[in-house]
Amino acid sequence: MTQDVTIIFDGEELASPWYPVAVRAPAVLILPTVMGVTDLERGFAAKLNALGYAAMVGDPFGATTRGAPREAMFGHLHRLIGDRPALLPRLQALFGSMLAQPGVDPGKVAVIGYCFGGLCTLDLARSGAEFAAAASFHGLFDPPGLPPLKIKPRVAAYHGWDDPMVPPEAVVALARELTEAECDWQIHAYGHVGHGFTNPNAAGDIGLPGVAYNELAAQRSWGSLLQLLGEVFG
User: Fold this and answer.
1) Per DSSP, which regions of the chain are E strands?
2) What are the pLDDT tens digits along the chain (234 aa)?
3) Any bridge partners for residue 8, and if so which?
4) Model pTM?
5) What is the C-alpha separation between 62 and 170, in angstroms, rounded?
6) Which residues are CB-neighbours of 204 under 8 A, at least 6 positions away?
């Protein structure tokens, strides 16, 4: 049964759906697209939950934004990514809440994110946080401008090569950054695929050229994620 987790950060309520399991289990924190927590992220959490993982959908935007229209969510996006050092403690609060949930094995935690959530996932990994794996799906790659640290989780980035928001030079820059951070990393680039490829409603939600669902890339990236989770969780 889904439960809600309420986190108060800097006076703002971050209310997140939590999908517990009956026994102590590996856990996955899911960070959402620009549209915030939607049925997309809840669906991914339910699929992981059915496989025996405890899942939580973190809400870095805050509960008051839930269900807001696209234009408003883009405004919230620019507010958060405009100050990446201030965004990080918000993400750390969500991560800490995941670790505090009953049944979570703190030594077996992964973080995954989509679009803006992919950027958030990479920022958590860049922060020096200790967890098993970080996976970004059509995420944004630009670094946060903070002092570089060793990246401890294994990192996988699933990327549409034709993503207009992440050009090829940004992909190469991420590979270089991860290498310099002594990270165990992999980048999967899907040809003829744009941004938002895991989201069947991507074109309507975002409304920008180069943003569209791609069923094959969605299947390939999900299968690769499950392989990564099996690898790090044993």
Assistant:
1) 3-9, 12-19, 25-31, 54-57, 104-114, 133-137, 154-160, 185-190
2) 799 999 999 999 998 999 999 889 999 999 999 999 999 999 999 999 999 999 999 999 998 898 899 999 999 999 999 999 999 999 999 999 999 998 899 999 999 999 999 999 999 999 999 999 999 999 999 999 999 999 999 999 999 999 999 999 999 999 999 999 999 999 999 999 999 999 999 988 787 899 999 999 999 999 999 999 999 998
3) 13
4) 0.96
5) 29
6) none
